[in-house]
Amino acid sequence: SQTIHQWPATLVQPVGSPLSLECTVEGTSNPNLYWYRQAAGRGLQLLFYSVGIGQISSEVPQNLSASRPQDRQFILSSKKLLLSDSGFYLCAWSRGEGFSLPGYTFGSGTRLTVV
Amino acid sequence: AQSVTQLDSHVSVSEGTPVLLRCNYSSSYSPSLFWYVQHPNKGLQLLLKYTSAATLVKGINGFEAEFKKSETSFHLTKPSAHMSDAAEYFCVVRGSYSGAGSYQLTFGKGTKLSVIP
Asked: What whole-number distance in Å separates Cα of residue B21 and Cα of residue B90?
């Protein structure tokens, strides 16, 4: 069966510090991978998606970046965090047509607080 | 472009009473719609999905939703709330094609459901 792992679960970082969130998927190959963010009082927002190794599409201009060094690994990074980067970050994967069973599968999320 | 509006940020019901979580959408084409649930400290879980088949969709845990095109609504209901239903619920519409057979998702802001014993 397929599983998705995301870590860390919570993170408190000072403004200006770097960020690295990691997501890995097991039990499938060549998944489509996504990073979403949920800021307080707002809906989930797509940040990045990837359809293959080294292929990253950005949906929202910001100081975050994403990389996919391996087929089932997706990393969200920042060189210098801003207060506005605080939020709940979710990694997700889908296989081909995103709504074949069971559709998108989400990780458990990372609660990031920038202080 | 598509958008989703969840009309209530917080809904509180007593255990054993019906649940209604409201969602309205806008889409320039025939949409695919979904409800996801997020329990505290857990990932999002798909409850149910509508993809242009039957307009009344049954999901897991006794939830169902009815697609009403004339009202552009996709409200989530359950006849009798259980304590374990307390969570945050997201209405989602499928968005634009993002390549390799996959699509983007547009999420509503979420509705937090509280169940009172």
From this structure: 10
Of residues B105, B98, B33, B32, the one with CA closest to residue A49:
B98
Token readout for B106 is 């547009």
In total, the C-beta contacts within 8 angstroms joining chain A to chain B are: 73
For B111, the 3-state DSSP assignment is strand
Which chain A residue lies closest to B50 (C-alpha atoms)? A99
What share of chain A in percent tops pLDDT 70? 89
- Our CA dihedral for A95, A98, A100, A102, rounded to 10 degrees, sits at 80
Predicted confidence band of residue A58 (pLDDT cuts 50, 70, 90): confident
Question: Distance, in angstroms, between B33 CA and closest chain A CA?
Answer: 10
Q: Is the CB of residue A102 less than 8 Å from the CB of residue A89? A: no
